Amino acid sequence: MLFLVTSACSLLLAPLVRSVSRKAGVLDLPGKREIHDRPIPRLGGLSIFIVFNLVVLIASQIDFFLLPIDTFDGAKPRFLNRG
Question: What pTM, to 2 d.p., does this model score?
Answer without folding.
Answer: 0.60
